[in-house]
Records
---
Amino acid sequence: MADYPSPLFEITDLHASTTDGIEILHGLNLVIQHGETHALMGPNGSGKSTLASVLLGSPEYLVTKGSIRFQGDDITDWAPDARGKSGLFLAFQYPLEIAGVSVINFLRQALSARKGIDLSVLELRLSIMDWMDRLGMDPAFADRYVNEGFSGGEKKRNEVLQMAILEPEMAVLDETDSGLDIDALKIVANGVSEVKNDRPELGVLAITHYQRLLDHLHPDVVHILIGGKIVESGGLELAGRLEADGYETFR
């Protein structure tokens, strides 16, 4: 893998609170290199989804201290659209429905903004069809309205399709396994792996409750988040300890 002048993604002493002043993240540190997959695990209320929202610039939270750097740039104060255009991607835990907007038109608008060019639907359709085939998706999916009437697995596969088409440099997967049965989880995880195989220098931060996702993603590093801080980091064996002993061991 090529040498890079700086980490792909670097979070330093990050403190963040709700807009009414309740601090949720208390000095979080995390470094992700190009091509690495990191897993972040933690109990309910530990700050996992807050972190995902803060990384993508949600106005629901305020960064009160620390910094977020992406490809060497300090993006702590960047707007969400600027972060997206720069190559940062979030797969939502609960993807929203967008009535009246087809999947292919949504992707056309998003990719046009990301690349700074005005793409036509025809230009995009071949690429979408190729990825739908690779992700095991029905081609008719492209013309359905975004997430409208989608099953939980379809919503999550749509998120993976977006990640494939938009070609981000860094993807944050916020509990992508939430609400999925074992078969749907395997399909989604294999989709993420397919995108990684296509773009090996993509960085991934997978936020999850469960080891079962990690059995498919094979992360390079596993982090335990408790009380708004990373309390321990290690290899996949750390997830095994967590599965056996629970979070109390790490408090």
---
Amino acid sequence: MKPPTPTLLVIRLSALGDVAMTVPAIYAVARLYPQWKIKVLTSPFFSRIFVGKPNNVELLTIEHEKTKGFAGLFRLIHMLRKEDVTCVADFHNMLRSWIIDVFFVVTGHKVVMINKDRMHRRQLTKVHKQGVCFRPFCLRYFDVLQKLGFKVSADSVLPAKRTRNLPHIPSIGIAPFARYRNKTYPLDKMRDVVRLLSSHENVKIYLFGSKGAEQAILEEWVEEHAHATCVAGQMPIEEEIALMSRLDVMLTMDSANMHLASLVGTPVVSVWGSTTPECGFLGWSQKRENCIVADCPCQPCTISGSNSCRYHDFHCLTALSPQQICEHINRIISLQ
């Protein structure tokens, strides 16, 4: 009788950027251990970013609303107990995943939870140590897999295959929005960035954002600049990721778009406000030299962001000039 296929359950329920950071580790372990099934528990929308996944990766999706309360968690655990799980990698490390972990530990399964180092990261926002860098979350996911016995590391990740079939002119993606105000470069200044980049004849700019209010703002910018195109609300996320893979460079905040562009190997120029790359959230394989940080004494002031500033001026963002951002982009592509 053929033995059952061993199954690794990976838990990462939210948010979009955090789920994107798990992809390199998940794909690496799937390719190195083809005899294993890798089942990823996440939300239906986030599952769409797992493009080009190995054949032994299966996505288990459940709506957030269906996991609320004891009844929802019982429903989720009842679903998971049918999956013949061998061991569990908890990439989420929040209340819902803790309850799932307890179930699997009690039933005799090995469970390893990601170390988010919350205490030390909170301390970083209080003492604002310059030069202190916490282990990137992309690598912490590999740590979890190694503790489960998988011989996998960042060196195991295959380089992203990029498709460069856009016209032979420099192509720039710009994603000017983030969830929180203190992570979002002022829109009037970003508008100037678009204006400066559009002043070059030999350039194409793609503006990324969500459908609705963000789309309306970007469509106003497009009317002012002949070389800009708004893709917000125009295509599903899978097509947006495919477009990112064909760009020369992507300009983002510390946001999900930074991580999506990183997955497809596109160089990212990232703008940081209340957070800094040293908090551990820099995109996969991105370079610190392409991060734009004002290096204010109060940075970082948060780990995940907020809509307030203790000094009420958001100086960490307003101190950055549009020209400074354009210079970083010019380091990657030459605009004549």
